[in-house]
Amino acid sequence: QYSPDNVAGADGALDPTDITFPGCSCLTCAAPACSCLRHGENYSSLCIKPTDDEEGFARPVFECNTMCRCGESCPNRVVQRGLQFRLEVFQTAKKGLGVRTLEFIAKGRFVCEYAGEVLGFNEARRRIQAQTPKDSNYIIAVREHLHNGQIMETFVDPTHIGNVGRFLNHSCEPNLFMVPVRVDSMVPKLALFAATDISAGEELCYDYSGRFHNIPVTNRVPETSEESNIPKKPCYCDARMCASFLPWDSSLFSPP
């Protein structure tokens, strides 16, 4: 079933349609006066602003929401406007279905969301453990490290309900990167932005591991003995620095 937005999962743990954020009272939103921009400006000419390398971390992104006084033309409303480019799902040579763009996409532009059922940890783990080695896994686990040391987890499963994002393939040198963007509540939209200028006809890919634009390759955590015994799926991204296998996360496979 196609859905452009996240929906509540069968476990009902989180409802992404809940509106819990108060709105700003701005007619023209600008940092730092706008309460939605207390962390700084998010966008410039529809392009996401790059993280300051000196900070060493990504600033949280909050867009203006349903309760705000500003209108739909507010420059702090980008991801919520939805798909703005013509994309095509196509059959790749080795990777099954993939997605390519039919028009040029400039670096920093929002491309699409990875939307699906928003699950709690227990339901996400139940679904993962019910899969066979032949099943395709669409469940994504996004972990955000907060300033107080806590980790906020978001699990999205577009297996049965989702959007075009479910057909995006992995690449070890991708042209997209994912940013959790919040609009109406703390349940984020998993937004994919262009990491570079992308030409018409190019396949769109992101790094399933989340390392791209986060942790340098040299800082990869060594495999545990448990992980080394798991049969991994080969990677066919053909990147110069290809890791040979698709990223794998053991946390959802571990027993309670």
Automatic annotation (TrEMBL):
Enzyme Commission number, as recorded: 2.1.1.357
GO biological process: methylation
Gene3D superfamilies hit by this protein: SET domain (2.170.270.10)
Top-level EC class: transferase
An annotated Gene Ontology molecular function: histone H3K36 dimethyltransferase activity
SET domain: residues covered: 85-209
Domain spans labelled Pre-SET: 22-82
Catalyzed reactions: L-lysyl(36)-[histone H3] + 2 S-adenosyl-L-methionine = N(6),N(6)-dimethyl-L-lysyl(36)-[histone H3] + 2 S-adenosyl-L-homocysteine + 2 H(+)
Coiled-coil residue spans: none
InterPro entries: H3K9_Histone-Lys_N-MTase, Pre-SET_dom, SET_dom, SET_dom_sf
Entry annotated with the keyword Repeat: no
GO terms for cellular component: chromosome; nucleus
Main location: nucleus
Location(s), subcellular: Chromosome; Nucleus
Superkingdom of this protein's organism: Eukaryota
One Pfam family, short name: SET
Protein's UniProt keywords contain Zinc: yes
UniProt keyword terms in alphabetical order: Chromatin regulator, Chromosome, Metal-binding, Methyltransferase, Nucleus, S-adenosyl-L-methionine, Transferase, Zinc
Protein name: Histone-lysine N-methyltransferase SETMAR
